[in-house]
Design brief:
The protein folds into 3 domains: 2-67, Winged helix-like DNA-binding domain superfamily/Winged helix DNA-binding domain (Arc Repressor Mutant, subunit A), CATH 1.10.10.10; 74-281, BirA Bifunctional Protein, domain 2 (2-Layer Sandwich); 290-331, SH3 type barrels (Roll). Helices cover 30% and strands 29% of the residues. The protein is built from 9 helices and 15 strands. The chain has helices at 8-19, 27-34, 38-50, 74-79, 99-106, 158-174, 222-229, 251-269, 273-281, and strands at residues 2-3, 54-58, 62-67, 90-96, 116-122, 140-146, 179-181, 185-188, 191-203, 206-216, 290-295, 298-307, 313-317, 320-324, 328-331. An 8-stranded mixed beta sheet has the order 1-4-5-6-10-9-8-7, sandwiched between helices. A 5-stranded antiparallel beta sheet has the order 14-13-12-11-15, with no helix packed on it. Strands 2-3 form a two-stranded antiparallel sheet. It is elongated and about 85 Å long. It binds biotin.
């Protein structure tokens, strides 16, 4: 595990090499300038290389920074972070069971508002409604702890606000048009490209905190993924933002999402939830169509009318309007 608040020696060596990109720096020079032993310099360089950075070395000349890693290491995120509070503390794992479970444990502690837990790969990723979430290398899998300032009546808008934030980030950074599927799936051409999970802790009519789990198929082999998912409930096709061979990095999208999320949450605090509902609603194709909603009370069929002020999906059925908060929607 790496965090944004340790590994000071390693970061010192890395930053120095990176800021002298065109130069060779000897182990002795690095040791003198950074005031760490030569053995420590050597150990840090070994570690830096193992993280995917390319550091060239030449006898008698020393080390030269060639290229950065693709991994979402905490100090790589912190470099370009433009948020007020989200992402100021980061926990990074090469592999974890579930970032959501780790974040839920952290959330019980005090100063973790805005903390992000991120992993290259999850072995026991969790989806909505107790489903499994397939999370191999190449995806963006993370959870964010938020202690919100807004009222509890906004809790049901969190999934809509968060999925809207992700749509905006994807479109701004990658110019890929995305849509939403109620309550918080992100789709491209009708196939799922990202999903979200909200675990809220509510005490005495107050949202103590919530953990937002985000899974984005960033650069994933989707045929492999389809094989794993196609027999499950709620499967309607999966897709990935990019192909495995595409040379594209996840850092920009991740950083932009944190900015957009902070913005929509701020809107909730400023009581502007109707704006969020409106923008979200413009991105779905289900209104006025026949839909089936799989709820814990069984399947409800009817016409999707709108999302109301509390984030409930309104369905016009033969026996009148139904307000639905939890379920999976499919057209037809
Ligand atoms: C869904 O559409 O069912 C929600 C998927 C949420 C997956 C993310 S990946 C990061 C975080 N950790 C988990 O175990 N799940 C969420």
């Amino acid at each position: 595990m790496f965090t944004s608040f340790d590994n000071i020696g390693l970061i010192k060596v890395l930053n120095f090499l990176e800021s002298h990109e065109s130069e060779y720096l000897s182990g002795q020079d690095l040791s003198d300038i950074l005031k760490i032993s030569r053995v420590a310099v050597w150990k840090h360089i070994k570690k830096i290389r193992s993280l995917g950075y390319v550091i060239e070395s030449k006898q008698k000349r020393g080390y030269k920074f060639v290229s950065a890693t693709d991994k979402l290491l905490p100090w790589e995120i912190s470099k370009n972070l433009e948020t007020k509070f989200i992402g100021k503390r980061i926990y990074y794992f090469d592999e974890i069971n579930s970032t959501q479970n780790f974040a839920l444990e952290l959330a019980t502690k005090n100063n973790e508002n805005g903390t992000v837990v991120i992993a290259e790969k999850q072995v026991d990723g969790r989806g909505r409604l107790k489903r499994k979430w397939y999370s191999p290398d190449g995806g963006l899998w993370f959870s964010i702890i938020i202690k919100p300032e807004f009222e509890i009546s906004n809790a049901t808008i969190i999934p809509l606000a968060s999925s809207l934030a992700l749509c905006l980030a994807i479109e701004k950074i990658h110019k890929i048009k995305v849509n939403v599927k109620w309550p918080n799936d992100i789709t491209i051409d009708g196939k799922k490209v990202a999903g979200m999970l909200v675990d809220a802790s509510i005490q005495a009519n107050n949202i103590e905190n919530f953990v937002l789990g985000v899974g984005i198929n960033f650069k994933i082999n989707t045929s492999q993924m389809e094989k794993n998912l196609k027999d499950g409930s709620n499967f309607y096709g999966v897709t990935s933002l990019f192909k495995i061979q595409d040379k594209v990095n996840k850092k920009k999208l991740f950083n932009q999402f944190l900015i957009e999320l902070e913005y929509v949450l701020d809107n909730l605090t400023k009581r502007k939830k109707n704006e969020i509902i409106k923008k979200w609603s413009n991105r779905t194709d289900m209104f006025e169509k026949r839909v089936k909603i799989n709820t814990n009370k069984g399947i409800i069929s009817g016409h999707a009318k709108k999302i109301d002020d509390e984030g409930a999906l309104i369905i016009k059925t033969k026996s009148g309007n139904e307000r639905i908060f939890v379920g999976d929607v499919s057209l037809g």
